[in-house]
Amino acid sequence: MPSSLLKAAAGRAALAAVLLVAAMPLSGASAASVFEACSEELTSYCGEVTPGNGRIAACLYAHEDKLSEGCDAAIVELADQLDWFMASLTDALQTCAPDIEKFCAATELGEGRIYRCLAAHREALAPECQGVVTGIAERLTKE
Q1: Residue 33 falls inside a structural domain
Q2: What are phi and psi of 94, to 5 degrees?
């Protein structure tokens, strides 16, 4: 395979791996749970802040010494979920790229379709990729 085609295939596999995990919901914690738990703080300290580009997060960070325990706990939970998300993304990219290209090249990207494609082919995946797909499924169903 010419190197330009190989690079294109690797790029497509990398994008698919990103979308594999990015399309998965973060269970337990979400931005909505932070907004709910931090509603008082958001009103008091960040009411004048225009949402977007991390400005709300920056506002909460600037007032971290004034956050309630519930707000702080929701932020920590979301941060833990995001840590898991990023580790899963890295793992999926490094491990499943060949299987994404092999089994899911024709799969439309978005809305978890790449993940569902891999899950549907779980038995035929490389053992390492099977582990990634199983790990993601277990994490999403346990919380």
Answers
A1: yes
A2: -75, -30
Residue 53 — φ and ψ, nearest 5°? 55, 30
Give the chain's largest Cα–Cα span.
60
CB 29 within 8 A of CB 81: yes
CA distances for 22 relative to 63, 65, 71, 109, 115, angstroms: 29, 31, 25, 11, 10
Whether 40 is in a domain gets the answer yes
- Of 34, 11, 12, the closest CA to residue 106 belongs to 12
User: pLDDT tens digit string along 71-122?
Assistant: 999 988 888 887 877 777 777 778 899 999 999 999 988 778 888 899 999 9
Domain that holds residue 43: 27-142
The pTM of this model reads 0.56
Q: Which two tokens stand for residue 32?
A: 């909505």
Number of domains in the chain: 1
Residue 98 lies in a domain: yes
